[in-house]
Automatic annotation (TrEMBL), chains A, B:
Its EC number is 4.1.1.50. The modification Pyruvic acid (Ser) is found at S83. This is S-adenosylmethionine decarboxylase proenzyme. It holds the Pfam family SAM_decarbox. The lineage of its organism: Eukaryota, Metazoa, Echinodermata, Eleutherozoa, Echinozoa. It comes from Strongylocentrotus purpuratus (Purple sea urchin). Its cofactor is pyruvate. The active site is at S83, C97, S240, H254. Keywords: Autocatalytic cleavage, Decarboxylase, Lyase, Polyamine biosynthesis, Pyruvate, S-adenosyl-L-methionine, Schiff base, Spermidine biosynthesis, Zymogen.
Length: 344, 344
């Protein structure tokens, strides 16, 4: 990606590092209830009423900006100079890469949700994979312990976890051990590194190319059916897409194609009874050398337990380095870390 | 416990903190094989041949000393001024509390195993619960990240994990992702805090009391059948026991009874098909306010998967705050964190 924060150039001006690894913030809101049980302006509890200029101002703090917008049914989707923002009635997802400062949005987001929608936060999921170059991040994001201290200063009952290896590839999570969200919810994420050169070629030399062509030629258009895709090519390379499904479903993909620090993220909340064939399509499309996979599901999710729906039958080209299954108050989570088998 | 390191007194001389939480090091060895496939002095690969004065010297580095010795079948067991040491043919377990420096034993242990038994390490498990007062520990042990860096400087392919909440009660593990131990192996640990006053009274005012009486009156004698118990009372309070089962089975219990920092650890490698009734007896005997429970099992273990044998049916007085199930190369691990339900 050529815009925004996080570029590191050597003396000749060549980009020597870009951190594709995103910081992902997902917030769930509910109406503030008055003491007599009445909900003040309850009909206003729709986060989409927050004015666009307020959102743009909040994004300045995060060090990124809006480059594209799309909508469908109950959702607004923004492609950002670094990744994506999704806003539906009660859920806001802000995912940003590079050296953006996503947690700097929190004060603004909580204030905007109160001011325009009379809403308060009921659940939060802040997560990220370990960075390739933590030393290049702004100070708060150099270590997850500091991010946790900051979040603990804002939220009560926050719980922080590390899945995978502290001294290797891992995935950090901060969430609230609190009220449950009473609707089906599930999130699959695949965070892929060391990607195949041929695949990455689709996302190189993008200057002057149409995003629709890249979406189609790369196979992204065929990953999830009935998806309204808003794709965006960065110059001279890089690609982002937001896909909107019916109701509040979404898919989002971000590609950093440079060989030295290639990274692709795939995320969806699409409701499925079994994610195995989707996982297989993603692996065939991007051919990562390594990846971390997480699946969050709550009790109402169509697939029920996250553990039973990721059977690994289609992962036979990969060696599993870690698999962990966590039971939280309202969600369960399956985490896996896989490395491509060099013999095959 | 009144001996050894880690006592913190206020001005009046009253003990204001003692860290019962142990650092647990378990090492597995195998004979060093020569290049032609011949095992040099293979019959000597029995760690019990290491002379006692060498062991005592190694323990000086850890800042603790031997206070009692027992043996049975294939095992030597030592009660230390801070916790325990078990030595069988190929396995060594060193568990020490207070402000001992258990990792300072590593260089000596590896050298002794090579010198006297021609053995090298094939697996390591270093684990501990979060300390109550990490600020009182020696520098290396104030943060697990530093312990990991130290272990990574000695071992290749070490994998470090945090189970539970980084910002709450958690349990740290460092292990090798390497060769498998080809014999059944399983370890149950329960690390208990906020213990019941009536139960802790058994381990208070121990000056002049017989350890046998404390073992019997506290109910410890009835926890595991066919167990050769070596108990030890510390003055003015505190209790440790090593229990030897047939072959290389063991049980070890350590009690820090002071109300302000009460702590009890239970650990066994007893082979069982189901640990539920043992867990229930431990909870009834010690009545902790909170506890962390871990069960490690390898493929050969009688109970198979650690997850399926901890059914929680007998934990109905407790609320589960976390449960995580991890699949490592040779072992699986179930971790749980439970808090006593105040309503009952």
């Amino acid at each position: 990606m050529d815009q925004g924060s996080g570029k590191v150039n050597n003396e000749g001006g060549k980009l020597t590092h870009y951190e594709g690894t995103e910081k992902l913030l997902e917030l769930w809101f509910e109406p503030i209830t008055l003491e007599n049980g009445e909900t003040k302006r309850q009909k206003m509890c729709d986060l989409r009423v927050i004015p666009r200029d307020e959102i743009a101002e909040m994004l300045v703090k995060v060090k990124c900006e809006i480059v594209s917008f799309s909508e469908r049914d109950e959702q607004h989707a923004y492609i950002l100079s670094e990744s994506s923002l999704f806003i539906s009635k009660r859920r806001l997802i802000l995912k940003t890469c590079g050296t953006t400062t996503v947690l700097a949005s929190l004060d603004s987001l909580l204030a905007l949700a109160k001011k325009y929608c009379n809403c308060k936060v009921v659940d939060i999921f802040y997560s990220r994979k370990n960075f390739m170059r933590p030393d290049l991040q702004h100070s708060l994001y150099k270590s997850f312990e500091d991010e946790v201290k900051y979040l603990d200063s804002i939220f009560d009952r926050g719980a922080a976890y590390v899945l995978g290896r502290m001294n290797g590839d891992c995935w950090y999570l901060y969430t609230l051990d609190d009220t449950s969200i009473e609707q089906p919810d599930q999130t699959l994420e695949m965070l892929m590194t060391d990607l195949d050169d041929e695949v990455m070629a689709h996302f190189q030399n993008t200057t002057g190319r149409k995003s629709e062509d890249v979406t189609k030629e790369s196979g992204i258009a065929d990953l999830v059916p009935d998806c309204k895709i808003d794709g965006f090519v960065f110059e001279p390379c890089g690609y982002s897409m937001n896909g909107l499904l019916k109701d509040d479903g979404y898919v989002t993909i971000h590609v950093t194609p440079e060989k030295e620090f290639s990274y692709v993220s795939f995320e969806t909340n699409a409701s499925m009874e079994d994610y195995s064939s989707l996982v297989d399509r993603i692996l065939s499309t991007f051919r990562p050398g390594k990846f971390v996979m997480t699946l969050f599901t709550n009790e109402q999710a169509a697939c029920r337990s996250s553990r039973d729906t990721l059977k690994e039958t289609l992962l036979d080209r990969y060696t599993r380095h870690d698999r962990q299954y966590s039971e939280f108050k309202n969600y369960d989570l399956t985490f896996g870390h896989y490395v491509r088998d060099k013999k095959r």
